[in-house]
């Protein structure tokens, strides 16, 4: 047994595969040795309008496309079939112009349909005729030509409407009729089977004018797939500007509020803060598509909404006021993310002209004033008029979302100093990740993001250990294990728990975290893995949700120093595989390709290229990739193994990055590794793992190596089962050593209020993990204590709508705690021990 000692240790036991050898282990916790504090702000939530998280999710509105604005496009955009296309815009980092295509619907009036005797009886179309609100100009014109049988305009809700028997639903309909329409309009709640569950007549006493009608509907039965129908019984014309149906019972009984069950799930996480409004929606595909908080205020019927770049329109119903109120209800701080005049850098990357930066800065300052300003200020007055004279708990402002580069840095400095000057009490966050803060003068916090595979989190629990502490702290604003884990499974959750142990141990640096994304309507999984799933009448927490909940509910005040003895890991190997060439947004050439093994050159004459991405051609023995596509790839057969020397020449002809050299690849390109030489806008070089055909995180430290254009480089890769080395022009640039995946992790801390030592242990192996636990320096240890445990039968297991509590924290009493005790942690488990210690 090898003794490994490290402060606030993480137990990293064994293995390349998820098998484990059960052996006697020892964890020693020093109760007299206080480690880093774990800040009360540690666990928060990240909200973005993605996956119908808000509309059709948290926001309680039951009518989809209530304002008929769904097909309103951002300025300058057009639709081609099911694609929404932006105008050509200049990417400010590359200087190149391009358009961006997003998801669009071909439905003529989304969510609404006409039910008639025959198609000629009535027709509907969207118009902008005499809009009631200039900000939401669309309305629906219905022409009824034959009313011998009733004509119904039906709204399906967000994949149905979930309604409860005997409860009140507020109907609001803004309707105009032509003078020749002499009939009535009846609103009916219809069950999935077609029964009428409630109805009311909409009064439209004044023809030719907008009537703002309100009524209460009380369903006679519950239904999870109800519809709202508006029935017309006469010929003539009717225009609908707005139709809304809202439950009376919302979270904390707020008007225009949130679904009780969904908000309740979030409240159960006891979040210290809520980040809003995103995410990429902050930036927009282009600036014309950015999220505009000012448009989210006031009468919901007048809110413009905006196309969410995640494929549908966001109604702006869950607006800034509602967010701030939600924070207050949760006893959480608000985090506002502002736009610095740069659109999403993974999309058009448009930057506003310099003379407009101030406009964006003012917009951000106004948002802060709206939350914090007193009632004498311009925006404080508007807030007070909305019903909240007291300030809201805004504490954090993130300046931009996932922006980077010199232009961002320049703007960040402007925003930072202007905001700090006016609001020194606020914590300001930059978008920088762990590789440094670029050219900015200062920041309070940085915001690294990780969407990765389990291996990444399992092998990066020490990522923060040696990070400098002196200048700023860290907010891990978006992280999730979402690669190779289906819709999210127990291994994903356990890998996050392992990563959390590393973040908690480094609580002096990592002060805030938020899993992302938070919510998913089960009918619209736009993002692969999300924390909470919902339907019209159900909310399901994935295993990751319970990891978040357990970690947050059992946040210690500070860490306790510890040591761990563990078994020697089995040596890991790099799986044999194929080579390949590629590039990222760069034109490249490769030639003089040679593979040798045991001093012999492998004959590549019969070699072929397999899976391809990009535009490839071979001229005079030179393999060229001539497109500017991202992640191009061409794999070479002819040699497969993990013991070789691979040599060739490479030249970059044009573009933003350098070379992608694949190794250890599966034939279909689904998994393997890639040397990304001059990646991240030609700023550095690293090895990335390929999972499911795409890159899934870097495997080692990046090195600051870049590539010049029009220069031939001699590249040599020396591979063995244990490591792969990259040489450029004879110089070793980087090596990647196969690492054993750790499967047991722990952190330990102390809760001063309850006088308990808290141990959080992850066992991601498929066998139980037995260990001795020693509480050094404890005067007394109470035998009986609490165990909270989340377990699954396999790493693939997950909760479902049918079995939402399949993986669910179990609380029990344990009666054999002591200064020294044995404990067996089940396979695939996250366990928290709470031990009363003096
Ligand atoms: O969480 C989903 C997206 O991931 C966010 O919008 C963005 O910030 C990140 O790229």
Main beta sheet: 10 strands, mixed
Q: Tally of extended strands?
A: 55
Overall pLDDT metric: 93
Number of helices: 9
- The CATH H-level superfamily of the largest domain is Glycosidases
Query: Which structural class is indicated by helix and strand composition?
Result: mainly beta
Task: Spell out which ligands are present.
Answer: alpha-L-arabinofuranose
The CATH architecture name of the largest domain reads Alpha-Beta Barrel
Radius of gyration (CA) equals 29 Å
CATH fold node name of the largest domain = TIM Barrel
Distance, first to last CA: 31 Å
Number of domains: 3
Strand content: 35-45%
Instruction: Sum up the overall morphology in one term.
Output: globular
Unreliable residue runs: 1-23
Approximate helicity band = 10-25%
**CATH class division of the largest domain:** Alpha Beta
Task: Give a quick summary of the entry.
The chain has 3 domains: 51-64 and 255-555, TIM Barrel (Alpha-Beta Barrel), CATH 3.20.20.80; 112-247, Jelly Rolls; 577-737, Exo-inulinase, domain 1 (Jelly Rolls, Sandwich). The chain is built from 9 helices and 55 strands. The strands form 10 sheets. Strands 1, 2, 33, 49, 50, 51, 52, 53, 54 and 55 form a 10-stranded mixed beta sheet that branches.
